[in-house]
Amino acid sequence: MALKLSDYKTDVHNDWCPGCGDFGILNAIQMALADMQVQPYRATIFSGIGCSGKTPHYIKTYGIHTLHGRVLPFAQGAKLANPDLEVIAVGGDGDGLGIGAGHFVSAGRRNVDMVYIIFNNAVYGLTKGQASPTLKLGMKTKSLPQPNVNNSVNPIALALVAGFTFLARGYSYDVRHLKDLIRKAITHKGLAFIDVLQPCPTYNDINTKEWFQGLDNIDPETHKAMPRMYKLEETGYDGVVHDPSEIMQKMAQVVEKSNEWGDKIPIGVFYQNEHVPTYQERIAARIPDYMENAPAIQQIADSDGRT
Ligand code: SF4
């Protein structure tokens, strides 16, 4: 029987703030799993610590709420133990790019075949809105006594040089587009990263939903708001590495595009390179029976009568 969107929802009370961008990301993950008819027992959502850390509580698959900054080691370990599992790791920008930055870079070097989604709102929402690594230099959100004194990290560019092989950016209020990005990330062979821009209406009073919609950015001729988001795929941009000889040229365009910010912010797939061996493939090259012996959890599930 076909699985419905409701089959991926739990009845756990959701205590995110009203208007939080987390809701759109949660819906997009559930929609992608339903679209792809992923059996709930074949998927596991891992999270770090932060508001987004509650995501596994709301998705009816296996779920592991891990430690601050440590979601990637847990998720990679699960995928290596059971290559048949769909593994999606989630976390905030502070969790993944602050305390978790070392794991972020190390994960890129491995290229384990899984998905990592960062809920990027530029603040530490769960602890009252301190500046996260993605808050731009000089920005003063309402929790800060002084403007941010640090430069911001560009998550897409950092993931690129670390070795992630699929890079995308979504927007939490464009749920269908984000769902399509998550589907592409799941089907990608290798480590996929999606940087999702999401308003935190409680603590980030600058990058609000209205700001992303361009309500402060009025076209002088039409007198209409000019949304800041535009879709790369509608511009003819092609981030896919069709041949390894293109890699340097594609990397250069990712750096250029991912640094666009302000009045125009690109979303979509920045880069996809399936010419890099995954970590599983590297292991299999050394341990010939790895792929046969690793899916121990799958064998347990199969023997449990579930198909
Ligand atoms: Fe969302 Fe911000 Fe509230 Fe956290 S503090 S639930 S990120 S709106």
UniProtKB/TrEMBL annotation:
<dbReference type="InterPro" id="IPR051457">
    <property type="entry name" value="2-oxoacid:Fd_oxidoreductase"/>
</dbReference>
<dbReference type="GO" id="GO:0051536">
    <property type="term" value="F:iron-sulfur cluster binding"/>
</dbReference>
<dbReference type="GO" id="GO:0006082">
    <property type="term" value="P:organic acid metabolic process"/>
</dbReference>
<feature type="domain" description="Thiamine pyrophosphate enzyme TPP-binding">
    <location>
        <begin position="49"/>
        <end position="196"/>
    </location>
</feature>
<dbReference type="GO" id="GO:0046872">
    <property type="term" value="F:metal ion binding"/>
</dbReference>
<dbReference type="GO" id="GO:0030976">
    <property type="term" value="F:thiamine pyrophosphate binding"/>
</dbReference>
<dbReference type="InterPro" id="IPR011766">
    <property type="entry name" value="TPP_enzyme_TPP-bd"/>
</dbReference>
<feature type="domain" description="Pyruvate ferredoxin oxidoreductase beta subunit C-terminal">
    <location>
        <begin position="200"/>
        <end position="284"/>
    </location>
</feature>
<dbReference type="GO" id="GO:0045333">
    <property type="term" value="P:cellular respiration"/>
</dbReference>
<keyword id="KW-0411">Iron-sulfur</keyword>
<dbReference type="GO" id="GO:0047553">
    <property type="term" value="F:2-oxoglutarate synthase activity"/>
</dbReference>
<protein>
    <submittedName>
        <fullName>2-oxoglutarate synthase subunit beta</fullName>
        <ecNumber>1.2.7.3</ecNumber>
    </submittedName>
</protein>
<keyword id="KW-0408">Iron</keyword>
<keyword id="KW-0560">Oxidoreductase</keyword>
<dbReference type="GO" id="GO:0044272">
    <property type="term" value="P:sulfur compound biosynthetic process"/>
</dbReference>
<dbReference type="InterPro" id="IPR011896">
    <property type="entry name" value="OFOB"/>
</dbReference>
<keyword id="KW-0460">Magnesium</keyword>
<keyword id="KW-0786">Thiamine pyrophosphate</keyword>
<dbReference type="InterPro" id="IPR053399">
    <property type="entry name" value="2-oxoacid:Fd_oxidored_beta"/>
</dbReference>
<keyword id="KW-0479">Metal-binding</keyword>
<dbReference type="Pfam" id="PF02775">
    <property type="entry name" value="TPP_enzyme_C"/>
</dbReference>
<dbReference type="InterPro" id="IPR029061">
    <property type="entry name" value="THDP-binding"/>
</dbReference>
<dbReference type="InterPro" id="IPR032686">
    <property type="entry name" value="PFO_beta_C"/>
</dbReference>
<dbReference type="Pfam" id="PF12367">
    <property type="entry name" value="PFO_beta_C"/>
</dbReference>
